[in-house]
Amino acid sequence: MELPSKILENAVNYFESLPGVGRRTAIRYALSVLKMPKKDGAAFGNSILQITSELRFCQRCHNISDDTLCQICAHPKRKQSTICVVEDLRDLLAIESTGQYFGVYHVLEGVISPMDGVTPSDLHIDSLIERTKEDAVDEVIFALPSTMEGDTTCFYLYKKLADVNVKITSLARGVAIGNELQYTDEITLGRSIVGRMPYESTLNSP
Fold first, then answer.
1. What is the rounded average pLDDT for all residues in the chain?
2. Which of 32, 35, 130, 163: CA 20 to 30 A from 86?
């Protein structure tokens, strides 16, 4: 469908480039913005600019943040001695939504996947090892996807942490094999956090 305005077409193309947004939905979004009062439209555009220019990443856990440390790392009541390792921000948000976890996180920004060209050096693994060695960390929880790539990453981390005096646990297998955390319901995910098990015991699991 050819649009009557190049400006509108440009906006539609950007909306359409977002994951899960088709052409018709992109047009609907663009027309909704067009109907906004100028003040609201300017605020909407400014919020997008802030995401690309002002949003930071926590220097400790790599979560998104407005400041040097994210709200979770800086929270005085979070248990700093327990680190939950997740693939990305979506998994962090999924676990937070359960209300069952009170420690801190470490965002890897991916999992090891040779087929996709993702190696350990592409992930925030070195900073995780440094945290466990330098901070008073008692437990590291592996909360990565129950996929081949996720399991490979867990095993790699397990080997890297072998000489560190820290308890290593994994989510209980209430999360189905092959599932991604962000698509797991809150009750199941919450039970998996509470019922986490020593990682060693998962190595011989079917």
1. 88
2. 163
For residues 181 and 84, membership in a common domain is answered with yes
First to last CA, the chain: 51
Structural domains of the chain, count: 2
Which residues in 51-132 belong to E strands, given as ranges? 56-57, 64-65, 79-86, 103-107
- List, in order, residues 6 or more apart from 84 with CB less than 8 Å away: 95, 101, 103, 104, 105, 106, 141, 143, 193
Q: Residue 62 domain-assigned?
A: no
Please say whether the beta carbons of 81 and 139 come within 8 A: yes
Do the domain assignments include residue 60?
no
Same domain, 38 and 111: no
115 and 30 in a common domain:
no
Q: What is the mean pLDDT of residues 87-113?
A: 94
pLDDT score of 206:
45
Rg of the Cα trace of the chain?
20
Name the nearest CA neighbour of 15 among 35, 37, 30.
Answer: 30
Domain of 41 in residue numbering reads as 6-53
Classify residue 109 by burial, with Cβ atoms within 10 Å: 0-12, 13-18, 19+. Answer: middle
Residue with tokens 């466990």: 132
Same domain, 33 and 126: no
